[in-house]
Amino acid sequence: MKLITRFEAASRSTAELHALYREAFNSAASAQCGSQERDNALASLHSIKAELAVRSPGL
Fold first, then answer.
1. Distance CA 49, CA 18 (A)
2. Which pTM was predicted?
């Protein structure tokens, strides 16, 4: 999975972020422990979650 940075997450819509979160979650779940793919997916989840946390619900 391609790493999603906080900067890239900020430029996406909330709906896109939810879709990316699902994709990153599935990627992390299916990747081998310790692999670069899993590390990227986990870092992406962190970036996406942080961006979603700063957005107001309903906007």
1. 9
2. 0.89
Look at the block and give the residue holding tokens 């997450």. 9
pLDDT, averaged in runs of 10, over the chain (59 residues) = 96 97 98 97 98 81
Q: Give yes or no for a contact between 44 and 31, defined as CB atoms under 8 angstroms apart.
A: no
Residue 59 in domain: no
The DSSP call for residue 5 is -
CA 33/CA 20 separation, integer angstroms: 20
Domain of 49 in residue numbering reads as 6-54
The total number of structural domains in the chain stands at: 1
Q: Which residues contact 6 (CB under 8 A, 6 or more apart)?
A: 47, 50, 51
